[in-house]
Write a structure and sequence with these properties.
This is N-carbamoyl-L-amino-acid hydrolase. GO terms for molecular function: hydrolase activity, acting on carbon-nitrogen (but not peptide) bonds, in linear amidines; metal ion binding. Its cofactor is Zn(2+). Keywords: Hydrolase, Metal-binding, Zinc. Belongs to the peptidase M20 family. By secondary structure, the protein is an alpha+beta fold. It is built from 12 helices and 16 strands. Strands 3, 4, 5, 6, 7, 8, 14, 15 and 16 form a 9-stranded mixed β-sheet that branches. Helix 3 packs across helix 12 and helix 10 packs across helix 12. The chain binds (2S)-amino(hydroxy)ethanoic acid (HGY) and manganese (II) ion (3 copies).
Length: 423
């Protein structure tokens, strides 16, 4: 019979967690000219990522866990439960960053998971199920061009051979970089389906701070569309070429940027968010009309139908523009994920546990993509958000969450995971 008295609540060691976050932050640290702050640059499968991976694996082993690496370089560490035959409860996130990153995006969920295991050990807690910690390869997608790569392979959305063949700007493939850094793991380390997955992550937005709480229970993730648009025009003399004779690729690209903002402001596409994060002209000379323009278009929308209409209208706008400007356009699909609603039950476990702990929270949909959106295809999944300072700004060295908020988020993670591992 179940022991009626609930187990004592777990409290994690917030200072130990903070020290680990600050130590990991130093790997790939750089002086960011734009902010005057120390940023973190740890692109997937670079030497910095390799060094960070080895430090995290060392911490996993020091926490008594056996570690394994799968074929896309995802790393899993297991804390055995009483009944090894049962599916595990998995916690994780990522340790790769964008090129101008901060100390918390991804790392909080990975180091938080290790802190949960240490806390369980120190409390002498034995769980029914195995508990696993992990980190997924290339969540940011900045280097190889598609985000959530490792978790998408785990969930079967991206085939392994397709993932292995992705290349960076220098033409190096994921497979080559896995071998070069030694993170090309084993097929027999593929992940069995978990019982549940919970990811702790900074919110990277303003919702929790505005509500005056440290923690959020995440209801789901909005849809993501990444496309590369290349405009092929014609180089010509900037001085002698009459306006009506031009095939100006740069002009067309600029008009696309303006149209994207108009679409967001129009309200015709719900809460559409559009970002042109990269834009480059060739031959990039002051007195030469650009012969080509290459740009990435990142669209986000909490409603799939609005995303579908936005992509369709954008494509039509670009076709009309191209005809008028006498240029040719080329679209390349980089990433596309639909809205992912998280498990109601896991959200309830998180909310009930937060109430037991007396930790204030709000529920929120995630504006950012996360590994949890992929693992959600495998098992009941939800996330714990941690509030950020400065409006939750992220993907910049200004990213910051205070120690108390980090400790509250990981404390919630610890107690919820313990409950899920005993069911
Ligand atoms: O793009 C995203 O939303 C995530 O940070 N990779
Ligand atoms: Mn992240
Ligand atoms: Mn990120
Ligand atoms: Mn092996």
């Amino acid at each position: 019979t179940q022991d009626p008295t609930p187990p004592p609540l777990l409290r994690i060691d917030g200072e130990r967690l903070w020290a680990a976050l600050m130590q990991l932050k130093e790997i790939g640290a750089y002086d960011d000219a734009a902010t005057g702050l120390r940023g973190v640059r740890r692109l997937a499968l670079t030497d910095e990522d390799d060094r960070a991976r080895r430090l995290v694996v060392q911490w996993m082993r020091e926490a008594g866990m056996a570690v394994r690496v799968d074929e896309i370089g995802n790393v899993y560490a297991v804390r055995p439960g009483r009944d090894r035959s049962l599916p595990c409860v998995l916690m994780g996130s990522h340790i790769d960053t964008v090129a101008t990153g901060g100390a918390f995006d991804g790392t909080l969920g990975v180091l938080g998971a290790i802190e949960v295991v240490r806390t369980l050990d120190e409390a002498g807690v034995a769980t029914l199920r195995d508990i696993e910690c992990g980190f997924f390869t290339d969540e940011e997608g900045v280097r190889f061009g598609t985000d959530m790569l490792g978790s998408a392979v785990t969930a079967g959305r991206i085939p392994l051979d397709h993932a292995h063949a992705l290349t960076d700007d220098a033409g190096r493939t994921v497979a080559e970089e896995l071998v070069r850094t030694g993170w090309d793991g084993d097929a027999h380390h593929r992940r069995p389906t978990p019982h549940a997955y919970v990811e702790c992550h900074i919110e990277q937005g303003p919702i929790l701070a505005a509500a005056g709480v440290d923690v959020g229970v995440v209801t789901g993730v909005q849809s993501i569309s990444w496309q590369r648009l290349t405009v092929h025009g014609e180089a010509a003399h900037a001085g002698t070429t009459p306006i009506e004779h031009r095939h100006d690729a740069g002009l067309v690209a600029a008009q696309v940027v303006i149209e994207l903002r108009r679409m967001c402001d129009s309200g015709d596409y719900g809460r559409l968010r559009a970002t042109v994060g990269t834009l480059g002209f060739e031959p990039a000379q002051t007195n030469v009309i650009p012969s080509s323009a290459r740009m990435t278009i990142d669209l986000r929308n909490p409603v799939d139908d609005h995303m579908t209409v936005a992509e369709k209208d954008l494509a039509r706008f670009v076709d009309d523009l191209a005809a008028a400007a006498g240029v040719r356009v080329e679209w390349e699909r980089m990433a596309k994920t639909a809205v992912v609603p998280f498990s109601r039950r896991i959200q309830d476990v998180l909310a009930e546990t937060a109430d037991e702990l007396g930790i204030g929270y709000v529920t929120a949909m995630s504006g950012a993509g996360h590994d949890a959106q992929e693992i959600s295809a495998l098992c009941p999944t939800a996330m714990v958000f941690v509030a950020g300072e400065h409006g939750g700004i992220s993907h910049t060295p200004r990213e910051y969450s205070d120690p108390r908020a980090c400790a509250n988020g990981v404390t919630l993670l610890a107690n919820a995971v313990r409950r899920l591992a005993d069911e």
